[in-house]
Design brief:
483 residues; alpha+beta; Beta-Lactamase; 6-stranded antiparallel beta sheet; 5-stranded antiparallel beta sheet; binds adenosine-5'-diphosphate; binds magnesium ion
């Protein structure tokens, strides 16, 4: 603060010996405290200045306290003889007599007081006191300006501190795409020092060559149309380090709301680790699915080659036994025929069970015949549109099969529909399977486990499952990319 300068200028030109600035101190009792002092002769008045700087006065006390509470200038011919001057003893020691004091005024009111003292006795000088009115206001304006500047500097320092300690890269560019600001996290992540990159074109420095034109076009489009399409969105894009290596980043762009040409701030986060974790997770889901499919196939083979074969040969044996029985043994014949019927039911159930675990027809002949079988067994009539003839990778065929099975079971169980349709198509390198019904709607994946399990299966293959359910019916669509 430039108070001492002000005191020296005013005090020196008046030819007085001592000056002090008093400011309100943040004390609930409302003290004024000495904030700065000036002495024409440090040797003679230094001690008085030191005493003053240690002094705080309540409203009405001493000269500054009186000026403070009356908001008006005041004059004392001899402070040593004044009954309301707490520093009288120090004034005696310093040989100071006359004093005057006036308020520092701002638009907010009185914010302090300025005091001058001299070694001689002086009667009040009305002209001088009158000029302190305007002097007090000028000093007040000056104080306000200095305070505003100081708080601005403080804010800047605070913002700078936030910028530097942020974990995210914070990069600001102007409307030409040139870097204005590049924080410490950005330096660490991209491998540039701020001064190497500030005022360079951002795109040229941290965007891979193949994506630069796209970025430039994006900025140009925004400046042209003001279309805020990407502002505030979280984008996943590719960044480039100083050494040319590329890595995945998450980017959010905001426009700095200031008048003048636009500037933009990007918050950038290195998501290499997250991407790797996602990849690992996906890979492990695919492995799990593979293991599950394999296990289902093994069970189905065991049932087919084991239990089923035994029951079939038991059926043969029973037929032989029945054929060899003499005509007249009616009750034994009846028993054997009942056993044959029971056995046929057991075989049918076993075959159905094996098909549910893993349909052999899917492995052997592919999706089209497998789904024709499912459609034929469905309780609700199914219209099956053309199926691709070619075989798809095994996990994809299995996923499509289970989507159709679950959807048709759901339709039979929940939809109250009169018909269902199943379609399967290859579009843009993806397989799209759709199962619809004309039922009551109201399907909700959160209500059960079947749809959730399907979504897991499809997502493990990088695909997606969409459920649309309205009063006019329900459609389940799975999209799986083909390798
Ligand atoms: N096609 C459909 N029509 C009407 N409701 C359905 C249909 N499919 C599913 N739902 C509803 O959505 C819920 C979730 O389905 P799902 O996850 O398969 O569980 P669930 O084991 O009950 O079949 C079901 O409980 C049912 O209420
Ligand atoms: Mg279900």
């Amino acid at each position: 603060m430039a108070y001492p300068k002000v005191l020296e200028t005013v005090g020196g030109s008046l030819g007085w010996d001592f000056g002090a600035v008093w400011e309100e101190s943040f004390d609930p009792r409302g003290f004024v405290r000495c904030a700065a002092t000036w002495c024409a002769d440090e040797g003679r008045h230094g001690d008085f200045a030191a005493t003053s700087r240690k002094t705080a006065l309540p409203p009405g006390a001493g000269l500054p306290g009186r000026v403070w509470s009356n908001s008006a200038p005041a004059w004392i011919t001899d402070v040593q003889a004044d009954p309301n001057f707490p520093r009288a003893e120090a004034a005696v020691a310093a040989g100071l007599h006359a004093a005057f004091c006036f308020p520092i005024r701002t638009a907010r009111g009185v914010v302090g007081a300025i005091e001058f003292m001299t070694s001689s006795l002086k009667e009040p000088d009305d002209e001088l006191l009158a000029t302190t009115e305007s002097l007090g206001s000028q000093i007040g304006q000056f104080v306000e300006r200095s305070r505003a500047e100081a708080s601005m500097r403080e804010r800047e320092a605070r913002h700078g501190g936030i910028l530097e300690s942020a974990l995210d890269c914070i990069i600001t560019i102007d409307h030409n795409g040139r870097v204005l600001e590049f924080n410490s996290a950005a330096e660490r992540t991209f491998g540039y020092q701020a001064d190497e990159i500030v005022s360079r074109e951002m795109v040229e420095m941290i965007v891979p060559p193949s994506l630069r034109d796209q970025h430039r076009a994006g900025l140009a489009r925004y400046l042209d149309t003001g279309d805020p399409r990407i502002l505030g969105q979280r984008l996943e894009i590719t960044g480039m380090r100083a050494d040319g290596t590329e890595f995945p980043v998450e980017l959010t762009i905001t426009r700095i709301p200031l008048p003048g040409p636009p500037a933009f701030t990007g918050f950038v986060r290195d998501i290499t680790e997250r991407k790797e974790a996602e990849r690992d997770l996906r890979a492990s889901r695919v492995r799990l699915l593979g293991a599950q499919n394999e296990e289902r196939r093994r069970l189905e083979r065991n049932l087919h080659d084991g239990a089923q074969q035994r029951l079939v040969s038991l059926a043969l044996t029973l037929r032989l036994a029945r054929d060899g029985l003499p005509e007249q043994d009616g009750s034994t014949l009846e028993l054997i025929e009942r056993a044959q019927e029971e056995l046929q039911l057991a075989l049918d159930e076993l075959r159905e069970l094996a098909r549910g675990i893993h349909p052999a027809v899917l492995t052997e002949r592919g999706l089209a015949p497998a789904l024709e079988g499912v459609a034929a067994r469905s309780a609700v009539p199914v219209e099956l549109s053309a199926m691709p003839e070619r075989r798809l990778p095994e996990p994809i065929e299995a996923a499509v099969y289970y989507v159709v099975c679950e959807a048709l079971v759901n339709i039979a169980k929940h939809a109250n529909a009169s018909a269902a349709r199943v379609s399967l198509a290859e579009e843009d390198g993806q397989i799209v399977v759709e199962v619809g019904d004309d039922g009551a709607g109201g399907a909700d994946a959160a209500e059960g486990s079947g749809l959730r399990g399907l979504a897991d299966r499809v997502e493990a293959l990088d695909g997606g499952l969409v459920l649309m359910s309205e009063a006019s019916g329900t459609t389940l669509r799975a999209t799986i990319p083909l390798p």
